[in-house]
Design brief:
The chain has 375 residues and is α/β, with parallel strands linked by helices. It is built from 19 helices and five strands. It is extended and about 90 Å long.
Length: 375
Amino acid sequence: MEPLASRIRPKKLEEFVGQEHLVGENKPLRVAIEKKELFSFILWGPPGSGKTTLARIYAASVGADFFELSAVDAGKDDIRKIIGSGKPLRPRVLFIDEIHRFNKAQQDFLLPFVERGDITFIGATTENPSFEVIAPLLSRCRVFVLQEHADGDMTKILARTKIKMPKAAREWLTRMAAGDARQALTALETAEKLYGAITVDSLKESIQSKHLRYDKQGDEHHNTVSAFIKSMRASQPDAALYYLARMVEAGEDPLFIARRMVIFASEDVGLAAPTALVVANAVFRACETIGYPECAINLAHGVAYLAESKKSRASYDAFRSAQDDVAKHGNLPIPLHIRNTPTKLMKEQGYGKGYEMYSKESYLPEKLKRRRYLE
């Protein structure tokens, strides 16, 4: 039997719910569809946000033949079969889901067909196309960014199923799906098949565990790590612990998290609390020896400590300034009186002459005598 998500998939733009910034009145995709404009584009957004549905509506609206491939299992031969030979009677739209999984060679192969207009290309991706799509292909496409469905949109989508459920179940399902319409519809269909009546309990039983979106090489990974670091930097332990929990629940390598904490201890806490580095290193060692699930407690301890610590980037900024001077001036002569003096000849040349162990005179090269790095 056809899945519920497929059965209720909108066929026309008027039926589509959400993404008003793209398909609302006078918005780009709506205008393109209404004017039947053919051009290649990439739909970048989270799972279940309507990328495939929009691609199909667009192809149907412009009167094109629609071909759909998944980059997971498609290759050059699949593209060749679609292109075929001879001029087609109707425009062809080639939709490639998860385009970020096409390697560079496959994307290079696709490029000339797009350039010549043999096909109108639509790519869908959950990853940032700036990193995942080759520049020549990206430059020939517009990029439309989709957002997670708002709660109001999810309510409308669930209403299309005609499946009766109490308000509490609908609200729980909306929260659980976190804007992913496909996940909500799949959970709803499973609960109906297994239990008949839709309740919060039947939905929970049908799902068992909530899948967290977290590609360790993708945007969600980098965004979560960024939020984690910035929360500790802002001395917000609650936010830092929340993003830590997101990473732990998604199965992030605890040593990766602990490494970021060791770096943070010196870069952001620094001289304000030198013991932070000791704590961060202890957490790293604990993660090495204990592992999940218990080392999550060690991580939480360390995160709370780092977030609550006073912050000072003085040593970090001073080091970066010194690096800038090294890059700018190269190897400036080291003052003679602080040079190494292993031989008699060197001493005769003045190496080490006048050295005082606790001198207040600057030991910097002559050109940088007045420089101050550590404030």
